[in-house]
Structures are given as C-alpha cells and as structure tokens.
Amino acid sequence: MNSSSPVLEASGLVKRYGRVTALDRADFDLYPGEVLAVIGDNGAGKSTLIKALSGAVIPDEGEIRMHGKPIRFSSPIEARAAGIETVYQTLAVSPALGIADNLFLGRELRKPGILGSVFRMLDKAEMQRQARQELSELGLLTIQNINQAVETLSGGQRQGVAVARSAAFGSQVVILDEPTAALGVKESRRVLNLIRQLRDKGLPIVLISHNMPHVFEVADRIHVHRLGRRAAVIRPVTHSMSDAVAIMTGATEVESDIA
Amino acid sequence: MTQSNQSGPRDVAAHEHVANTSAGQVARFEEEALSLGRRIHRFFHANPTAAPALVLVASVLVFMLLVGERFLAPFNLSLVLQQVTIIGTLGIAQTLIILTMGIDLSVGAIMVLASVVMGRMAIDFGLPPSLALAIGLLTGAVCGLLNGTLVTRLKLPPFIATLGTWNIFFALNLWYSKSEAIRSQDIEATAPLLQWGGTAFELFGARFTYGSILMIVMFCAVWYALNWTAWGRHVYATGDDKDAAELAGIRTRRVLLSVYIVAGVICAIAAWLLIGRTGSVSPQAGYTANLDSITAVVIGGTSLFGGRGSIFGTLIGALIVGVFRNGLALAGVDVLWQEFTVGMLIIVAVTTDQWIRRTSA
C-alpha cells in the first residue's frame, strides 16, 4: 500500500479553543484499502482530528487533501457528499423509525415519474430492497423485519445498521468512532468482522478506539495521537500493545517510521 | 414485529389486519414464547392508532347502550363530526408540532386572528372574498413563521415561544377587530365564500358540511405527507432524536421552520371553517381551542416527547372527545361531568403512552 498515494491526508492541522490547543500541527494519512486505527489518551485531540476530517470542525490552519486535491468542509453534509461517512459514537439513528427508514434517512429515494417529481412520493419498496441487500451483504440478515423500529434492536444490531448505512453511502472513506465501546464481547466480535468486510470491499477505514486488543486485531496501521499531534505511526506486526501505550503516554519518544 | 404491516397504511383497517395476523407470527419469530402482556405491548408499540381506535369503538358502544337510538342516529353521528371540525383541524397543526417534540399554545389565537383578518378584509375593506381568504391564510403563515423563528433562531422552548405569541396574537386580534364581531348577515351579503365551510348536504339521513369534508381531506393529505414523503420522515426523525437527525444530514432547523409555517396555514384554514360553522366572526371565539387541540392529539396517542404518533390518531382523539360530550349531553349529564371525563381521558391516554413508549416492557 505504500506504492499508492493516500486517499485522505492532512498536514499541519491546528485547532484552538480559546487558550486550549486541541490540534497542534497534526498530520494524518489514510491509504487505499487499509484499516487505520487512531489511538490516543483522553484529551489528546483525536476526536477533534476526526471531526476536522468529517467536517464537524473547521481547522484554523492546515490543509486536508483527498486524492491529493485540497478540500475544505464547512459541514458534515459536505464531507458526506464527498464520500466520507462517519459512524458516530452516538450512532445517529432515529430510534422510532424503521431500519430501512434509518438507512436512507436524509437521502431518501423517490418514485420515478410524476409520483416522485410532483407528489414527492417515496419509493419505499426500492429502499427496502436495497436495505435488505446491504444488510445481507454484511451478513446482518438475522434482523427479521426491515421496517422494525431500530429501538427494538440490540446494541450490536443497531451498530450494524449504522455501519451498513456508512458502507452503503461511503464511497471513499468510512470513519468509525468507538464502534465497540458500548458492546458486549460477542457483539464486538461481529462489529470487528463487519470492519474487515468493509475493508475487503475496498473501503479504507478509520477506526477510533480505546480498546487495544480490538485495535491490534483489525488495524493495518496505528496512528498514535499525543498532545494534539501525531506522535507515531506503528504497525501491529512490528510493535506490541505496550509499545503503543508507551508512545501514547509519552514514556517512549519515537522517531516515527511513518509508513 | 410482523411481516404483514410493511409500509401498510396506518389506517384502522390495517390494524384489524395486523391484529389478526400478528399473534401467530410473533410466537414463531421469538425463541421463547412471549407473555400476553409483552405481546399486547408490542402490538400497541408498533401501531400507535390502535389504542385510541379501540377507545373510540368502545365509547360508541357504551353510549349506544346508555342513550340508545338517539345517539346512533345518522344525524346525530354526523353532528359529532361537525362539532369536531374546528378542533380536529387545529389538531392537525398541533400534531405536526408535537411530533417535532414541540407544542403550540398559539393555534387558537392564530385561528381567531386569521378569521378577523378575513372578515375585515372582505367586509370593512370590500376586497373580493377570495383575496380576503388568501390574506387570511397568509396571516396564518406569517404567525407560523414567527413561532418557527423564535424556536429555531432564538432557540426558545416551543412552550415559552408560543405562550408569548398566544398573548400577542390574541391582543393583535382584539386591537384589529376593535373587539367587535362581524355579523353573519353582513358576511352572507358580501362574502358568502367565507361561509363555504358551513354549507351542508344530506346523505342517508346524515348531514355533512363542506367544512368537515375538507377537514377529512386535510387529514388524508397530511397523512400522505408524513408517511410517503421525505419531509414526513424528517419530521419524525427531528422529533425523535434531533441530534441524530442532524448527524444523519437532516437540516432540522429547516424542517422545524417548515412545520411551524404549515401549522400556521392550517390554523388559518381552521379560521375559514370557523366562520363557516358559526356564520360570523367573533374576536372572542376559540380562546380554549389551543388546549382542546392538545387534548385531541394526546388522546389520539401521539407522544408529547416527539417522534411517535400518527395523524389519524388525532382525528380519532377529536372524535372520542366529541362522542363523549355528545353522548353525555344526550344522556342528560351535567356539563361539568363532560369536563371531568375529558380530564380523565387525558390522564389515561398519557399514562398509556408512557407505557407504550417503553421498549423493554
């Protein structure tokens, strides 16, 4: 993957909140077809970094490039339009709406012809068909009814719906924020499998997680964030978990072998 | 919960269908048999109009036994429909707003203000009735825009924003009308269009007004908009979880603003129907209409916590109140017991809603 150029990269990002510098000349890069984990202590600025990449935060300085071209997002909607899908920790699903409704929330399909253009009629059948297809591709069809309210699903199934939505619409990058934080062991496993499946479909993935075993299990590279900037990029094959923690906490200084 | 209710219209007939087919399927899907209580809970959770529909049917049966033929006469039943026309129409506006987790205390005041504007434009200024009607509808839209702006721009809680505008609109109405009513004869002579809603026709011994037919048409139109357009899904999503809707890419401020404007226009249509029903324009009318419309919505099973409920529930809710008032009056019960009963209905309805909203009962 070193031979290709990054899908998404950022250099020298700075974001200040009053006197607090959340991002201090942070760099970032994501290559095609990889799972990049972003780890860091609380307050290291990793969530600000992710928000900058997903359009939720506008950096004060620095540049974000997609396929080498500079881009600026002023809202998450713009980032999404550019093909960057984010699964937030809060999941951003509407509990009372059904699975299909949630998958297409904000980008509903309308019926062709006059029904769609004049009467704005939704094409429910088509949305349900695509939702069913997307879920079965991800092996999530244990969900019985595509119109079932999301609040009646288990935590893992909800996470599955949110991931399925990002997979269905994320054409360039999928960002997952702590996808296993609220899940039990079994359900975490399924979500990790989902992440691998997405990567195998060719989507590069950014995974933010506190869970070291999970990170070392699925990540191809690990971006360690410390004090508002990238401290190192390591590989699970060359570094151990304790190395990662040492870099994260500042116990070891690494002249990074940035891949 | 069932495979049979996929995207089906949430009308009463569909509930019957679901009711007949659901019990067996639930048992087949679940590994352990569900207790009866959980099954009932799931059914009501998935079908928000089922509970009010049952109450309506039950109340009709009770009054049939209590009062007998006088209650069941087509003329009397159609009278109930006429009696709920105004509150039902305001209830449409109120449902839209409550679905977004808001509340609108100003619906009655918007209605009265719009009716005064329509009346004065046509009678005092001699404008063509259709133009007077249009200006009245525009007044409703502007009132809704003001409410929506207070809620979305100044971020006021809807309760406070509309508590303020309720008083403002009512004061404007008294000022603009000079606290004077416009007589029915004057409207009939110069602007009969404003009384269109009161025009009646007979069918099978029942008497229907154009106003009540228009109300039902509006219920159907809003049902369509809520269930078959993206806008409707966004209204539900915004009320359900605003932050989630925002993250999903819905411009919730725009959705909210549109809901308040549409509600304002519907209130102005209610104003037109009010002129049709009473024949005249009175600046003192409809002072409690806001609370009556909230009553209809709540009894109709729409949750005050937003995102849950259905528009036909409100029609049923308005009819339940209408049936109780009419039936109790026919049974010769004192008016104060009508109020008492409506109060009980509200408390029972909200208690039921609390129970239904729980997902893990």
From TrEMBL, chain A:
One of its GO terms (molecular function) is ATP hydrolysis activity. SUPFAM superfamilies: P-loop containing nucleoside triphosphate hydrolases. The keyword Nucleotide-binding applies. CDD domains: ABC_Carb_Monos_I. This is Sugar ABC transporter ATP-binding protein. It comes from Litchfieldella anticariensis (strain DSM 16096 / CECT 5854 / CIP 108499 / LMG 22089 / FP35) (Halomonas anticariensis). Residues 8-252 form the ABC transporter domain. Keywords: ATP-binding, Nucleotide-binding.
TrEMBL record, chain B:
It comes from the Bacteria. Pfam families: BPD_transp_2. GO terms for molecular function: transmembrane transporter activity. It is found in: Cell inner membrane. It is a multi-pass membrane protein. The keyword Membrane applies. Keywords: Cell membrane, Membrane, Transmembrane, Transmembrane helix. InterPro entries: ABC_transp_permease. One of its GO terms (cellular component) is plasma membrane. The chain crosses the membrane at residues 49-67, 105-123, 130-150, 156-176, 208-226, 255-275, 296-324, 336-356. Belongs to the binding-protein-dependent transport system permease family. AraH/RbsC subfamily. This is ABC transporter permease. The lineage of its organism: Bacteria, Pseudomonadati, Pseudomonadota, Gammaproteobacteria, Oceanospirillales.
